[in-house]
Design brief:
The complex is a heterotrimer.
Chain A (H helix, E strand, L loop, with lengths): L1 E5 L10 E6 L5 E7 L6 H4 L8 H4 L8 H16 L5 H33 L10 H8 L1 H22 L8 E2 L2 E2 L5 H30 L2 H8 L8 E6 L11 E5 L5 E5 L4 H4 E4 L8 E4 L16 E2 L2 H7 L6 H13 L11 H20 L19 E8 L2 E9 L5 E7 L1 H4 L1 H15 L8 H12 L18 E7 L5 E7 L2
Parallel strand pairs in A: 6-11
Antiparallel strand pairs in A: 1-2, 1-15, 2-3, 4-5, 6-7, 7-8, 9-10, 12-13, 13-14, 15-16
Chain B lengths: L3 E7 L5 H7 L4 H8 E5 L8 H6 L5 E7 L2 E3 H13 E7 H6 L11 H11 L14 E4 L2 E4 L3 E6 L9 E3 L6 H15 L15 E4 H4 L39 E2 L4 H4 L17 H11 L6 H8 L5 H5 L15
Parallel strand pairs in B: 1-2, 1-3, 3-5, 5-9
Antiparallel strand pairs in B: 4-8, 6-7, 10-11
Chain C lengths: L8 E6 L3 H10 L8 E6 L7 H9 L4 E6 L10 H18 L7 E5 L5 H18 L20 E2 L1
Helix pairs in contact in C: 1-4
The chains are: A alpha+beta, B alpha/beta, C alpha/beta.
Chain lengths: ~500, ~325, ~150
């Protein structure tokens, strides 16, 4: 038996490693995906004033702090039993959709873009942001930088800072915006819609126009038929900020739909002894191990699953794209993991349209942005869709609003089992008995992982060629290196 | 001339520091022109093994963010110290422990008991806990050892510079990079070793545009309890704001949108313990006729540890709670 | 010498009242335990939480702060600051897991030598009963504690 270690996993937020065991014929025996970190937020939030959790929990993730900030703020609303002032809610949702625009842009152009725009087996030296810019033009790189800067500007006007915003309070937000700020936001969000349309066009020209790539998306090595989870509004359209959680099955029918506050009746977490991260699954189906299908409680929560779990998008341009997406991929649900990248762009367009709708609503500059709580319930659940999956914050407090208990189910965690399965399936499909581990192998393994965008992308940094990667195969007995492959090192 | 070598690493952190570096906009092109990235897990696929293979001092500039939470964090800190000429403790977690440092109110066992045994969503009837060394049918798997006490970077290795902030502001990062690039090219000096960089003189109050008059608090209020005046100092309105005990440099982003400062830029120069200083300040401005009433008002602050030591518990005089 | 634990105490005494009260205890030949090291400050209002925490960190088992009676402060209201800082510091220390009673605040005038002696005697015995604080002893090199033995399925 030989152990192939990939450590650390790169191009994600956080830490992870993959251990691949192969027998003497190089046939994959098993693949273990391990998360080696644990910081203890659920423990050290206890004893804090509950309103402070909206500023403490975003430090779980500096790439999607807005998601934690919103989930926390909504949980705090519920703890105080306070209704959110209408303009306060609008400002929250505007901030949140602007965040989605920047986050999805970052992932697509820098992390996923190279694989798509250049092609999965293209020259590694060009399969990076530089290659992308060369292929589609220097203007695009500048446009990406500019879009991220403008999104940060908009978010900061409402939230103070883009990385770790601070405005969420029970009953609303901390401060209203001025007419001047609103005018700037209208300008910014108009640009966001144009940018989203441009990106989808780019995807059309360069990706969907490439048959090899379309075949790859549809290939079995990257397909899992898990359940799909996503938040929907009253019309079953995708909503990132608020709604009910809907789960649909392999045939597209609805399995269950619930309020966030009932999450404990629907989701449970399995523990494995080789990872610090737990594995959520659907209680109604049960934990059957790392398998997909109707009888396994494994589910996914991602742009792919959100589009599967909903009936459509709430804005017109995104709705057109939604229909085109499903008709091109021939049916619903779409189970092809790599199609997540396209689903992400449909969401990008929706987020831009929604942000623009909110910015142009005359009520957005209403000075009344917060209701003061008059009592306390002492328990609350706040749920939002984080870019990487449904995010649940559950708090309990004493009668003074001091936290006694915290339970969190975080976006990427929903996908822990699915990621493990995707890695194993990709490794089994690609590491073949008797053959050397080639550069293509390495890239494909990365692609299986990268589709989930486990919370990070690389933004505007220009890469030195392509991702250097090394795989070493060591004898389990002696720990000597038997063979190895390096790429770009 | 070959480019300088750049590394950035995250220990017990959230990734916000990485994003902040990437927010320096066009300046990133200048960084790219002057540096080769030789280790940066978020952005490039260099492995620990590569760093082990570099000569000592190979890395010209290393930005190390995140607190020291486990054995892997400590191992990599030692490794990068060996391989780096200039090593910066980057961000609040590396400089003072940051928000993960609040875990010092508990220990590793308490955290694990909660996450793997007590959480209401768990399905773990056999009481499975993650193991640091675990044998599976195919072989052996390892996980890092989780420490009881979170440490700062300087409590672990020798640090050249400290750059606070959660995260450090992008314009401050850009300014620091200018200084470093100039120094590496021999065109300017580096700051004195041990300096805090990327900050402005004085405290956050200096950057805050609210009107400050006399501080006399007759009662403290939590920010959700009322709608504060948008012009007046928040502390004067009875809201605990860490501004007076926090180094300037961030531009007072939080108070600008009506939220009190929570001290992420760390203690001002000359202050040993940020939390102790702010606690003393807050108690000093209570205004009541008798000492008994003063005592009652001062003691009404709901969470001294979490408020005064939000970002600096690991770096404080006492460093942790006894459990 | 007995084997019993001898508390190490720090006392911050204001120069106008309590330090003189301590001197008076001395010139009056009043007996009290020698466990407390006195530190003279200009005013009890000069003492802030930093001093208290430093003392505890550096090995003190207990810390006493003594100042003028309210209304008698040489600087008018310095001791009012002490009156506010002390309970908040106590609350912090409670959150950090220190037993109640490790820190103490007293108003001792220059004429109260007997009070000073009584307070120090009481405080010494209270801390003796609580036992050593030993704050530094809980820190250790955890990098050396990595698990060697593997657990099997």
């Amino acid at each position: 038996m030989k152990k192939v270690t990939v450590d650390p996993i790169t191009r994600l937020e956080g830490h992870g490693k993959i251990e691949i065991f192969v027998d003497d014929d190089n046939k994959v025996q098993n693949v273990y995906f391990q998360i080696p970190e644990l910081r203890g937020f659920e423990r050290f939030c206890v004893g804090r004033p509950v309103e402070e959790l909206a500023r403490i929990t975003p430090r779980i993730c500096g790439v999607c702090p807005e998601a934690h900030h919103m989930a926390a703020t909504k949980a705090i609303d519920a703890v105080f039993g306070v209704e959110v002032a209408p303009t306060g809610r609008m400002l929250r949702e505007l901030l949140y959709n602007a965040f989605y625009v920047t986050d999805h842009t970052t992932h697509f152009y820098i992390l996923a873009g190279p694989d798509f725009i250049m092609g999965p087996e293209s020259d590694p030296a060009a399969r990076n942001i530089l290659g992308v810019i060369n292929k589609v033009g220097l203007e695009t790189g500048g446009a990406v930088i500019n879009l991220r800067a403008e999104a940060a500007e908009l978010i900061s006007m409402i939230g103070g800072k883009q990385i770790h915003p601070v405005c969420g309070l029970p009953g609303g937000v901390s401060q209203a915006i001025t007419a001047e700020q609103r005018d700037r936001m209208v300008q910014i969000t108009t640009g966001m819609v144009e940018f989203a349309k441009f990106t989808l066009q780019l995807f059309d020209d360069v990706v969907l126009g490439n048959n090899d790539y379309v075949d790859l998306i549809k290939s079995d090595a990257f397909t899992h038929a898990t359940y799909n989870m996503g938040m929907v509004d009253a019309d079953n359209k995708v909503n990132f900020y608020d709604g009910q959680i809907r789960v649909t099955g392999q045939d597209g029918s609805e399995l269950e739909k619930f309020d966030g506050s009932d999450y404990l009746a629907h989701i449970a977490e399995h523990v494995e002894p080789y990872s610090y991260l737990v594995y959520p699954y659907l209680k109604s189906v049960g934990w059957k191990g790392f398998v997909d299908g109707k009888d396994s409680g494994v589910y996914r929560a991602s742009p792919l699953s959100r589009l599967n779990a909903a009936d459509g998008m709430a804005t017109p341009l995104a709705q057109e794209e939604y229909e085109r997406y499903f008709s091109t991929l021939e049916g619903k649900p779409v189970n092809a993991t790599l199609a997540t990248h396209w689903a992400r762009l449909v969401e990008l367009l929706y987020a831009a349209e929604r942000a623009h709708d909110l910015a142009t609503d005359p009520e957005i500059i209403n000075p009344d942005v917060r209701n003061i709580p008059t009592g306390i319930v002492g328990e609350g659940v706040g749920v939002v869709e984080a870019p990487r999956g449904t995010l649940y914050h559950h708090y309990k407090t004493d009668d003074k609003g001091m936290v006694t208990n915290v339970n969190l189910i975080v976006g990427t965690t929903n996908n822990n089992a699915a990621i493990s399965m995707s890695l194993k399936k990709a490794a089994e499909g690609l590491i073949k008995g008797g053959t050397e581990i080639s550069e293509g192998t390495l890239n494909m393994i990365e692609m299986a992982f990268r589709a989930y965008d486990p919370c990070f992308g690389c933004a505007t940094h220009t890469l030195p060629g392509d991702m250097p990667l090394e795989v070493t195969v060591k004898s389990e007995a002696t720990r000597d290196v038997i063979t190895g492959v390096k790429r770009n090192m | 001339m070959s480019k300088f070598k750049f590394a950035m690493y995250w220990a017990g952190s959230c990734g916000g520091c990485e994003i902040s570096v990437l927010e320096i906009k066009e300046k990133i092109l200048e960084v790219d022109a002057n540096f080769d990235v030789v280790f940066w897990p978020v952005a490039a696929d260099f492995k620990y093994k590569d760093v082990e293979g570099y000569d000592d001092g190979f890395i010209d500039l290393c930005l190390f963010n995140g607190c020291i939470r486990n054995s892997e964090n400590e191992h990599v800190a030692n490794l990068l110290r060996q391989k780096s000429k200039v090593l910066v403790a980057f961000g609040s977690c590396a400089t003072t422990g940051g928000i993960p440092g609040l875990a010092n109110v508990a220990n590793a066992q308490e955290i694990k008991d909660l996450v793997y045994r007590d959480n209401p969503s768990l399905d773990n009837p056999d009481g499975v806990y993650p193991q640091e060394r675990y044998t599976v049918p195919e072989g052996e798997l390892e996980l890092p050892h989780l420490y009881d006490t979170v440490k700062t970077l300087a409590q672990t290795i020798d640090v050249d510079y400290f750059m606070p902030g959660c995260p450090p502001e992008s314009h401050q990062i850009a300014a620091v990079l200018d200084v470093v690039i100039a120094a590496l090219k021999g065109k300017g000096p580096l700051p004195a070793k041990g300096a805090t960089i990327g900050v402005a003189p004085k405290t956050c109050c200096d950057e805050c545009e609210r009107v400050k008059e006399e501080k006399k608090i007759s009662s403290f209020r939590r920010i959700w309890e009322f709608i504060p005046d948008t012009e007046q100092c928040l502390l004067e309105q009875g809201v605990i704001c860490m501004g007076p005990a926090t180094q300037a440099g961030c531009g007072a982003r939080c108070t600008t949108v009506g939220m009190p400062c929570r001290g992420c830029y760390g203690a001002p120069e000359g202050v040993i313990d940020q939390g102790a200083k702010m606690l003393s300040t807050v108690a000093s401005i209570v205004d009541a006729p008798t000492p008994e009433e003063i005592a009652e008002i001062a003691a009404s602050v709901p969470d001294p540890v979490g408020t005064f030591y939000r970002f600096g518990l690991a770096d404080s005089l006492l460093r942790r709670a006894r459990v | 010498m007995s084997d019993q634990f001898e508390p190490r105490l720090i006392g911050f005494l204001c120069r106008w009242c309590s330090y003189n009260g301590a001197d008076l205890a001395g010139t009056s030949r009043l007996k009290y335990p020698p466990n407390m090291v006195p530190i003279k400050t200009n005013c009890s209002g000069r003492v802030d939480a930093t001093h208290v925490l430093t003392a505890l960190k550096e090995g003190a088992d207990g810390v006493l702060i003594a100042g003028c009676h309210p209304g008698d402060c040489h600087y008018i209201n310095g001791n009012y600051r002490t009156a506010g800082r002390f309970p908040l510091t106590e609350k912090l220390l409670e959150q950090l897991g220190l037993e109640h009673g490790r820190v103490r605040l007293e108003w001792v005038s220059a004429a109260e030598g007997d009070k000073f002696a009584r307070v120090v005697t009481e405080f010494t015995e209270e801390i003796r009963a609580l036992g050593p604080l030993g704050w530094g002893a809980q820190f250790r090199d955890e990098s050396a504690e990595v698990v060697e033995e593997a657990v099997s399925a």
